[in-house]
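Go through the following before class.
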Amino acid sequence: MMKKAYSTVIFFLLMFTLDAQYQKYNNKSNNYFLNPIFSGDYPDPSIMVDGDDFYIVHSSFEYYPGLTIWHSKDLINWTPVVSALTKYVGSVWAPELVRYKDRYYIYFPANNTNYVIYADSIQGPWSDPVDLKIGNIDPGHVMDNLGKRYLYFSSGGFVPLFDDGLSVNGSFRHVYDGWPIPRDWTMECFCMEGPKLFKRGEYYYLTVAEGGTAGPATGHMVISARSKSPLGPWENSPYNPIIRAKNNTEKWWSVGHATIFEASCNNWWMVFHGYEKDYYNHGRQTLLLPIEWTKDAWFKVPENIKVDEPIKLPVKPFVINKFTLNDNFEGETLSPQWKFFGEYDTSRFKVYSNSLILKGKGYSVADCSPLLCMPVDHSYMVQVEIEIKGNAVGGLVLFYSPKAYSGILADSHNILANLRGWQFVTEKDVIHEHVFLRLKNMDNTVDMYYSKNGTDWIKIENSVEVSAYHHNVLSDFLSLRIGLVSIGEGTVIFKSFKYEVIR
């Protein structure tokens, strides 16, 4: 199983040298940063400190290859290492990245069970998923002073693990009921989730989210409890909630799902996620805050720290990465920003001679398993050159889910508009198998263009507004992404993908 994954690992190690996550520095001073540390849809962060290195992984849902592990030396600049999950097992939620002895593990829920993958090196090769055959969601790993291992779940209970971490060694036991949210607070639901555990001094600390992951801006929150045993009983913190949006005028909504960690000696931080006001369709973005310890061994956010204001850097920046989505499809592998929705079928595509050759699938944008990347800006322009081979339809779309998408497409002769799934010919007999397509997204209002030569652009009459493409309207906890589509019987060849920020 491990041997089988080796070629996949080499594939990803090569492609991950091409890209890094862009971060926003405060222009007053390079000694400060501005949240988020991951722009775009990076929810449910699980961070691991491994010596002087930081590694983080997020929920990957239906986007494959999934469970991308990122590396940093400074908590601000991140570079992808490997996508650890290539075998499709359904929608992947709330993972937990841990190191135990000399092996790395990622625990995650999918398909009404929980899985684990493992590797002897963080770079891989990573194993195929091992089914733990236990329900619940959001596994959180902890071990006691004797090295015994346990997995906590969102329901406030745990199961013991065998030492190899690959199977359950006993029955589920409930030990924690959460922090009682005042009934007059505005929240979506109680919905305890995302347990994360660590030890400091004589106490084990349990951090959970409550209040509902989405819904009202004020619902989601970070809750802490402690115990002298990893198995409880748990005492709730007097500083709960550790963080919560107090009203919908704040910039960051539904803040929660936190991991607490020691970045260096007595330098403690909290990584968590939140929705950005007015840009809900970007999904849950990864945020970072310092925490301080009280004399009575509780932690809290310092009084003078605000999540939407400049914050002093955790450590001196190791390297300043510049992020780009531009892709000329060089080499023989996909760049790391690209994820297929709902599958990972390597037989469908080939990167060759500065082109991406993508076989058609399905009958519409909804069922073609589009190839997606994540915009990181509020306003941007994106374009691509395409060639249509056979009876195929190719396009450039903004895709939330199979039930919500819009964009511009082409068959061998016609330009087509797609407005919220309503697809029609908007320019008839204007091309012959070759065209350039463009989307211009200005604060969620999208104009669409085509060109025969890549220089002279023609705006079609159809535009679309996409601010409602998000979970509170459509459910599914996804985000609006840029998509390349190849539909039907035939092939679409993509060239020169360009992404430009509109300031």
The radius of gyration is 23 Å. The domain at 339-501 is CATH 2.60.120.200 (Jelly Rolls). The chain is about 5% helix and 45% strand. The chain has two domains: 3-312, 339-501.
